[in-house]
Amino acid sequence: MKEKLQVMKFGGTSVGNAACIQRAAEIIAASVRDSEVVAVVSAMSGVTNRLVETAHQSETGDATAGEELATLLCKQHAEAIETLVRDHSKRADLTSETERIIEEMASLCRGTALLHELTPRALDSIASAGERLSARLLATALVELGVPGVAVEATEVIVTDGSYGQAEPLMDETRERVSQRLLPLLGEGAVPVVTGFTGATPAGKLTTLGRGGSDYSATILGAALNASEVVIWTDVDGVLSADPRLVPEARTLSEISYNEAAELAYFGAKVLHPKTLRPVAEAGIPVWIRNSFAPQQPGTKITATGHPTARGVKAITAISDVSLITVGGRGIVGLPGVAAKTFTAAANAQANVLLISQSSSGNDICFIIDSTDAARTIEKLRQAFAFDLAHQKVEHITVNSNIAIVAVVGDRMRGLPGIAGRTFSALGRRGINIIAIAQGSSEYNVSFVVEAGLMGETVQSLHSEFGLELAASRFESVETDSTLTSV
Ligand code: ASP
Ligand code: MG
């Protein structure tokens, strides 16, 4: 028995072409010396987008869309096969498997075009083709390296509910399937290569876990296998202290907590979808974010404690494609039910509310949503407040899309007074006007709203205010509050 069990997920760019797949296979080959490995793959980058687009085109009755994509995928995957697989009979086997999967996709598109109807279930089946192709490619690339890779369909191991397009795992059933299907393979010394992004209902109907869902596949399997760790191989060095396009001196964080990672994801850092961490956080399984293009880099480790640093703040993050909606006017002072009505309207518009703030006088309620939800939300608000608007109880409902949310994120902030004070003093000195403020009750973040044009400057000044460009080691080894050293 090897002492470790790793679940390794390779994202779309990490399996984007033959050279990348080769690199992924080498990473696995190096790990299997002292660890059992289960691999999870995304589709080659861009493939899922194309599949989804083609499914929708087919729905309009376009009978050629599926055929065109089939030709393209055949060519793309044939090129990869040719580079990766030297053995002739293996090459022929993989080619015919690949063609069979592509033909299945094309025939689903033909059916869709014929019916002018794309059911959520058909969409999931079409969208999942990319992972079915890449899993077989990676498994064969492993075999070429002398590592017994075996492609496994996630429909055999990840059991989900029936919410097509955003299925949720049924963990008990999944655990059972995992022990029936994956443990025997690991016992034989094989490396299962599981298709990411997909699962199946208990009745065996294919589902997908939502776009970008392969990370979730990896953490679901990590939890079901009680793995030692989950490694997400991607195309960045790890989680950074800020977006490097805004702050060139941003640093890779060596360790963050599940909460910090979720907070960062929520506020725009494209790290991991917050729900991705749920299965592993419950089991306390660490997750690594590592760069498959630079495997010598240590990456970022995500754990329960997240190695707190004395400065409290770990990262500054920002999102700008958001809109601030204000419902206000003197007339609403003391008017009961305004907040309830406001957020019911937002919920009816299916808007994702990112931040809420209300002045104590009750003159204004403002909240922030994704800009794509703004028009719908305003319409629902106007309907909900039609009477009050007519009687001037609510004087205005306005939308401002020229804003950004900036968030200061860190677990330790709750133990450290003064972070908010420092944040706002730093911005005050710079003359940066703050439009609204919110602190989550979790105290993992202080977030506030500035004009969109000031987003870069705001993030930069806070990054340097909290010394995030400096090596974390200067601040580290904090175990208890009493050892906190002030900066
Ligand atoms: N291929 C799927 C997507 O692009 C899943 C993933 O890459 O995580 O959404
Ligand atoms: Mg992807």
Descriptive report:
This protein is α/β, with parallel strands linked by helices and 487 residues long. The protein folds into two domains: 4-235, Carbamate kinase; 315-480, VC0802-like, CATH 3.30.2130. The protein has helices spanning 18-31, 47-59, 65-84, 88-115, 120-127, 129-144, 171-187, 214-225, 258-266, 278-283, 338-348, 374-384, 386-390, 419-430, 455-465; strands at 4-10, 35-41, 149-152, 191-195, 198-200, 206-208, 229-234, 255-257, 287-291, 300-303, 315-328, 353-358, 364-370, 396-409, 436-439, 445-451. The strands form three sheets. It has an eight-stranded mixed beta sheet, sandwiched between helices. Strand 12 (353-358) and strand 13 form a beta hairpin. Helix 2 runs antiparallel to helix 5 and helix 3 (65-84) runs antiparallel to helix 4. The longest helix is centred in the N-terminal third of the chain and has 28 residues, at 88-115. Mean pLDDT is 91; it is low at 475-487. Aspartic acid binds at residues 12, 42-43, 48, 130, 196-197, 211-214.
Radius of gyration: 25 Å
By helix and strand content, what is the structural category?
alpha/beta
Q: Please indicate the percent range of residues in DSSP E strands (runs of 2 or more).
A: 15-25%
User: Can you count the beta strands?
Assistant: 16
Largest sheet: spatial strand order: 3-4-2-1-7-9-10-8
Mean pLDDT: 91
The small molecules bound here are: aspartic acid, magnesium ion
Low-pLDDT stretches are 475-487
For the record, the CATH architecture of the largest domain stands as 3-Layer(aba) Sandwich
Count of spatially separate domains = 2
Q: What is the CATH class name of the largest domain?
A: Alpha Beta
